[in-house]
Write a structure and sequence with these properties.
Elements lengths: L1 E10 L2 E11 L4 E5 L6 H9 L5 E6 L2 E2 L8 E5 L10 H11 L5 H11 L12 H14 L4 E5 L7 H14 L5 E5 L3 H4 L5 E6 L2 E7 H6 L4 H8 L6 H10 L4
Parallel strand pairs: 3-8, 3-9, 6-7, 7-8
Antiparallel strand pairs: 1-2, 1-4, 4-5, 9-10
Helix pairs in contact: 3-4
Amino acid sequence: MLRIENLLKTYGGKTALKDVSLEIPRGEIIGLFGENGAGKTTLMKCILGFVRYSGEITLDGDCINTKNIASISYATCEHSFFPDISATAHRDFYEEHFPAFNRRRFEGLMDFFDLPRHKVLRTFSTGQKNQFEVILALSQGADYILMDEPFAGNDIFNREDFYKVLLGILEPHETVILSTHLIEEVSGFIGRAILIRKGRIIGDVTVDELDEQQKTLVSYIKETYDYRGDRVSKALNDITGEEE
């Protein structure tokens, strides 16, 4: 169980996260949704220990440290691989440092994305770099796989196929936390949605609960965010001075 309690994070006096408390068991696929700057990336970086924070984050009751950090992997569009070595060299490095590294999954995903094995990563396209980042995160052998906008630069067909592959390869103990703005695309693949706004959790619901309420994920997010459908027409009116 990944448990977050009373998480607070500030940057230069500005609050990025406040009173964030979550329990995330193994075996879930979670969508993390929010506006730009809502705190999604900061939350993931707190979990990984990349930034200092107040509050408590534990994995199976223990603080996250060098002994258990291998149970969490991270795929980010900022990229965390070594740009001057090849995919094969990354595979060998991960096998040496992560005992649970899944070589069969790595090779299968490399074939699926049709990525070159012997070219250095800096020669990859943006889409290929993001695909490789995801491959490493999924192959590390982690129980919790954090993905922060991992599909930037990939076309819709690649993304849709990947969602299907993801559902097919995950083991029952693996949890994916996926931060994305592609709400409609992932709505059929996640089992739980967590909404964050201005650093606070404002919604946490399972897809089954939405089905019982006869709501779609998009309608739930709009309702929770108090989305105003007239904001576009109002903005156009303010800009052009024309009445509807």
